[in-house]
TrEMBL record:
Composition bias type Basic and acidic residues, residue spans: 1-10
Taxonomic source organism: Microbacterium lemovicicum
Keywords in alphabetical order: Isomerase, Rotamase
This protein's name: Peptidyl-prolyl cis-trans isomerase
Database matches in InterPro entries: PPIase_dom_sf (IPR046357), PPIase_FKBP_dom (IPR001179)
PANTHER family: 39 KDA FK506-BINDING NUCLEAR PROTEIN, FKBP-TYPE PEPTIDYL-PROLYL CIS-TRANS ISOMERASE FKPA
Gene3D superfamilies from the UniProt entry: 3.10.50.40
Reactions catalysed according to its record: [protein]-peptidylproline (omega=180) = [protein]-peptidylproline (omega=0)
GO molecular function, one term: peptidyl-prolyl cis-trans isomerase activity
Pfam families linked: FKBP_C
Region listing for Disordered, in residue ranges: 1-20
Similarity remark: Belongs to the FKBP-type PPIase family.
Length: 122
């Protein structure tokens, strides 16, 4: 059952950071499919590609979060549609699909890795 999952473990990335979005299903769900512009409820954790340092985690706050995809970084807008409720997906997001070049946001210029559990759509 999705809600009984534990916080994901991240494998150390191998090689240079990718220049394009990488989508990898760790577990394919069997529920409703997320579509562009949907509101999604997720549990997620994110680490920096280079350092492996965690910068954010809904698991750390102890509760899932709900938000509209259109309000998120482009890597999430591109990487979550097609995912089904009950699934767990890894996204490796280069800077131009995340927080842009270095200098603005504290994650600017960084490639990010997220592991996302899709709990609900709509």
């Amino acid at each position: 059952m999705t809600n009984e999952r534990t916080k994901p473990e991240f494998d150390a990335p191998q090689g240079p950071a990718p220049s394009d979005l990488v989508i990898r299903d760790i577990e394919v769900g069997d529920g409703a499919e997320a579509k562009p512009g949907d509101t999604v409820t997720v549990h997620y954790a994110g680490v920096e590609y280079e350092s492996g340092e965690e910068f954010d985690s809904s698991w750390g706050r102890g509760e899932s979060i709900q938000f509209p995809l259109r309000g998120l970084i482009q890597g999430w807008q591109d990487g979550i549609p097609g995912m089904k409720v009950g699934g767990r997906r890894e996204l490796v997001i280069p800077p131009h699909l995340a927080y842009g070049p270095a200098g603005g946001h504290f994650l600017g210029g960084k490639t990010l890795i997220f592991i996302i559990d899709l709990l609900a759509v709509g």
